[in-house]
Amino acid sequence: MVQPTPQMSDALHRRGLMFILSSPSGAGKTTISRMLLDGDPALRLSVSATTRPMRPGEVDGKDYHFVTQEQFDRMVEAEQFLEWAHVFSHSYGTPKAQVKAGLREGQDFLFDIDWQGTQQLYQKLETDVVRVFLLPPSIDELRRRLTGRGTDSAEVIAARMERARAEISHWDGYDYVVVNDDIDECFAKVCEILHAERMKRARQTGLIGFVRELMRP
Ligand code: 5GP
Question: Guanylate kinase-like domain location, by residue (predicted)?
Answer without folding.
Answer: 16-195
